[in-house]
Every structure is written in structure tokens, then in C-alpha cells.
Amino acid sequence: MSFSALVLFVQLAKALRFHCDGDFICEIWHWNPTEQGALVLEQIPITHGAIELHNFLATEISSNLFAYFEAQRRNILEMHTTITVIGSTLRGFVVEDNATYYNVCLEKTQLNHISFGTRCNLETLKIQHSNLEQLPQSIGNLKALESLTLSHSLIQAIDLNLLAELSRLVLLDLSKNRLHSLYDSCARTTTHPYPLLSELYLGENKLKSINMDVFQPMVSLTRLDLSHNHISVVSGSLVATSLISLDLSYNRLVEMDCCGWVIPKLYGMAINDNRLPALPRCLEHAFQNVTRLTFDTNQLQPDAMFQLGRLTNIELLSLTDNKLTHVPLNESTIPKQLKYLNLGHNNLKRLDVPYVPSKDLHIDVSSNCISKIDWDRVSANLTKLAMEGNPLDCSFYSISTRADIQSRLVCKKHRIERCDS
Q1: Could you please report the per-residue DSSP string of 221-259?
Q2: GO CC terms on record (predicted)?
Q3: Residue 42's CB: how many other CB atoms inside 10 A?
């Protein structure tokens, strides 16, 4: 019988059951190795290299528990094996020296301590929803590790020096913990301890400040997520010549200094949902190659547009929910490559667009207080305009609809209470 269509369901004990599917994954429920032993693992077809343990009834285990399962697959098929635990009373896990399975995922456990031996083959480690209070001291033993996810834990501080020996690490996800401190206890000058680290996720923690110098040794970093923290202070200089995406949204920034930053490949920058009354210092130098920039939900004033106009490569710019009362859209404020400009949810009273660089530009001024338009001061290049939620709605999305609105004066008028004050 072909295992691609095989579904096994074996009742080995009153509560114990498992089944193996065509995706070469075997799911096991309610296994208590102390009472039932490891016989269940011997029933798994040799073609299946992934185990998912649901409601795993153990508190302390060693990787030796899976030695027979793993050795068979390594010796016969050179298979990359995976151990996943989803829901368990598990508190302690020891990965022994020379452990040869490649992927371990521990989710929704009571894990509060885990240790790693030497010469392990582990490439992917995920620990989600645990009681860990610190990064395991022996994590540096996992020389083959390429992806590390440690989220939804009780960890409050991370010393990046503990990860400095992981030379193959590509992805590091430390989001959704309780981090209030991120530092490197080793002062580095020329060495690059994270040569391949490309993606770093630190979102949804409790960081109040961040020193950008800690990222300088990460020479391959392309994505950095610091969103959904409590950051009010950004210090140091972000020197990341491979970085393409930076997210600082949903923090508490009131000012920001980007002088000294070196981010030549950055194309996406999000600083929305902060408290900035002014744009970061040295913005036009640091963000000269950025193509997507969002400053929604800050406290920016109208003069911010003159700085943004110098960012000649910007294609998408969003400034919704700021303190913009009048924005002259001209050659000094609209970047030449701009394709989408969102000024919605501000307090604009009139629309003044004498300059539009191309007919591809879509301008959104929805939910403002615009009550009049002087068509003689609206560029003929403007072919896409969103005005919903204004006292005057002259929205159009093509040349023909613009001409129809302009010639027949068929704009819609509304009473907007917030605009009456």
C-alpha cells in the first residue's frame, strides 16, 4: 500500500493514539513515555520523518527518547527529522551531545529550562509560549542552527553575545516576549559574529530604548522589526549596508536623529503610530534611497512636506492622522517618483495641487475638511484623487471622470460636524 494515501489509526492504550498522513507527518496524542514507553515510535512508517506530539504527558525528557526513531531515518534514508510538541506539561528538555535531528518545535509547554549538547545537527529551533526566563546559556553549542524563534516567553533581557557563535544563523525571531533590554556584552571592533543573519524580529516586546550600534556587526541584516514596543529613545548609529526594511511603528518616539546612519539599500521604512512633531534629523541623507515611507499617526506639521520633497526616490508616502492643516503640493513638496500620496485624516481645508510629476500619481485626501477646489490651480496631470469624507467630495480615478466632474461640477457636498468648529 502506498504511504502517500496511508492513514494509520492505532489504539495503543486507553488514551494514546496516533495517525500518519500522506505528508509524512505522524501525529501522536496523549503519549506518556514514563508509563507507555517508546513502543509507539516503532510503529511509525520509515517513510515518515516528522512527529507531532499533542498533549505530551511528560515533564522532563532527553533527546535520547527519540534516538531509535531518528537513527533509523538517518541510517536508511539520510532523512531530516522533525520533532514538534504542541501542548504539554514539559518543563525540561536536554538535547544531548551528537543529537542528529534537524528541526525542533516546542509550542504551548511549561518549559522553563532547556540545554544543548555539542556537535548537534539542529538547524531550526522554535520555542513558542513557554515559561523560559532567559536565553539558554548553551545555545551557542548549536553550530548548525539557521533559524531560531523564541517567542511568548518570560524573557526580559537578551545578551546578543550568547548568539555570537551561531555563524550559520539566518533568522532570529525574538518577538512577543517581555524584553526591556537588548545588549551585547562583548565590545566588538572588526569581527562579524553574525555573518549570515538576515532577518531580526523584536516586535511586541517592552523595549523603552534601543541603541542601534548593537546591529552593526550584523553585516547581512536585511529586515529589522522593532515595532510594537515602548521605545522613546533611539541612540547610536544604524550602520547596516544590506538593510532593506526597517519597522519602528507603534512606539513612543518624540524625536529621532538619523545623522550618522548608513543604510544605502533601505527601501521600506515605517515610523507610523509614534509621537513625532517633526521629521527625524538628517532624514534626506539617511533615507535617500527609500521608496516606501509611512509616518501615519504622528504629530507632524505642514512644513514636514518640504523635507520629504527632497527624497527623490519615494514612490509611496503616507502621512495620515497628523496635524496637517495646509499642504502646498508643488515641486518642492512632491518627490518626482511619487506614485501614491496619502494625506487622509488630517485637517486640510483646501486642495492646492499646482504640480503633479506624472499621471500615475494617486493622491488621497479622504476625511479632511476640504470645502473648495480652485480647478485653475489643480495640475492637469492629476488623474486619481480620493476625497471621501470631506465637506466637498470630488473624487475621480481617471482622466475621463476628472473631466466629467470638472465640467459638470458634480462634486458631492456633505455636512461634516468636525469641520464646523
Answers
A1: --EEE--SS---EEES--B-TT--EEE--SS--S--B-T
A2: extracellular space
A3: 10
**Calpha distance 121→123 (Å, rounded):** 6
Q: Is the pTM value of this prediction over 0.85?
A: yes
Q: Give the start-to-end residue ranges of the domains of the chain.
A: 291-420
CA dihedral of 333, 337, 339, 345, whole degrees rounded to 10: -20
Query: Model confidence over 241-269: pLDDT tens digits?
Result: 999 999 999 999 999 999 999 999 999 99
Give whole-number Cα distances, 157 to 132, 182, 206, 234, in Å: 12, 6, 10, 18
- Report the SS3 class of residue 43: coil
Return the closest-CA partner of residue 110 out of 126, 127, 89, 94: 89
Closest C-alpha among 256, 282, 262, 260 to residue 270:
256
Rounded Cα–Cα distance for residues 353 and 47 (Å):
66
C-alpha cell at 187: 565590545
CATH architecture, domain 291-420: Alpha-Beta Horseshoe (3.80)
